[in-house]
Design goal:
By secondary structure, this protein is an alpha/beta fold. The protein contains 6 helices and 14 strands. The N terminus and C terminus are likely disordered. The structure holds flavin-adenine dinucleotide.
């Protein structure tokens, strides 16, 4: 930590406090726990997110989850190795990209999933780890470091001492702000609409990117198994593009040729511009 170095007395209660139980915080906690490091995760919301967000895990991410002992759990919620079919402005398929074989990191490159499913699995995993204390509905208000550790204060007034703190509290990170750490990177200029959908009629088992300049859209398959256990619903986000997640009945579409397992398709469909 770069700022706020004062000498605060107090015993260290845990090795690491992770602020934020999003994908980054829970993955970091799982990696630490896999190495026997005691972790306390503090999340301000009462539960993990149920909003449609990220829709594809790549091979590097799966390798990371594998290192944390999460691979068997995540196999339940992904559609492995779908590849992507690209369409031109007229709706004609131009080409389809897929992982080569053998896989460079032992996993296919493109694996559609739904972020709420991932977060739920990560939280369930952490709850089963003896060295992890996952505390929901616990918002961090302050972080101050001294020579021997970090003092974390929650909005409820609780104080924790840890050797280290990880600020995994998202794009509007309070930890980062307190420490004067700037946000790097940039966002898309355009606003997109993202939705998870059950009962969608598409049965393609690959991602579809529609390159229509007027109405760009992406559609990807979703896991039938995950859909059966999660509360997926259509969520309108913005008036530009609809992202849809669909569930297929088992066996209706078939898995990718080089992969056994469940079917899941993720798709995104165009929404007319205002007045269009
Ligand atoms: C609509 C939408 C669509 C997206 N689509 C994609 C996509 O297609 N592909 C892709 O790769 N990414 C996508 N993303 C981005 C992706 O969701 C984020 O990159 C990802 O969630 C970041 O994970 P994170 O753990 O860093 O942060 P977050 O998921 O933001 O998690 C941070 C957590 O910290 C908690 N928190 C915040 N402040 C505090 C505090 N003071 N104390 C305690 N807890 C706190 C929050 O409640 C939250 O649970 C999308 C995002 C959105 C919103």
């Amino acid at each position: 930590m770069a700022r706020g170095v004062t000498d605060l007395a107090g015993p260290i209660a845990t090795d690491v406090v992770v602020v934020g139980a999003g994908p980054v915080g829970m993955t970091a906690a799982a990696l630490l726990a896999a190495r026997g490091v005691a972790v306390t995760v503090l999340e301000r919301n009462p539960s993990t997110s149920d909003e449609p967000k990220a829709i594809s895990i790549d091979d590097e991410a799966l390798r990371t989850f594998q290192a944390a002992g999460l691979a068997p759990r995540l196999e339940r919620i992904i559609v492995p190795g779908t590849g992507t079919r690209y369409y031109d402005a007229a709706g004609r398929a131009v080409f389809q990209a897929r992982s080569g074989w053998p896989y460079r990191l032992g996993h296919p490159f493109k694996n559609p999933f739904a972020q709420p499913d991932l977060e739920r699995e990560l939280a369930d995993h952490l709850r089963g780890c003896a060295v992890v204390d996952l505390r929901m509905a616990t918002e961090v208000a302050g972080v101050v470091q001294d020579g021997s550790g970090v003092s974390i204060t929650t909005v409820a007034g609780e104080q924790l001492r840890a050797r280290y703190v990880l600020g995994c509290d998202g794009g509007r990170s309070a930890v980062r702000e307190q420490l004067g750490i700037a946000m790097v990177g940039r966002s898309f200029d355009e606003v997109w609409l993202v939705a998870d959908v059950l009962g969608d009629p598409h049965d393609e088992r690959y991602g579809m990117h529609h390159g229509n300049p007027e109405r760009p859209a992406v559609i990807v398959p979703a896991s039938t198994a995950a859909a059966a256990t999660s509360s997926c619903s259509t969520t309108a986000r913005a008036p530009r593009v609809t992202g849809r997640r669909s569930s297929c009945s088992p066996g209706c579409c078939g898995p990718p040729a080089d992969h056994p397992g469940s079917g899941r398709a993720l798709r995104r469909l165009p929404v007319p511009r205002a007045g269009g």
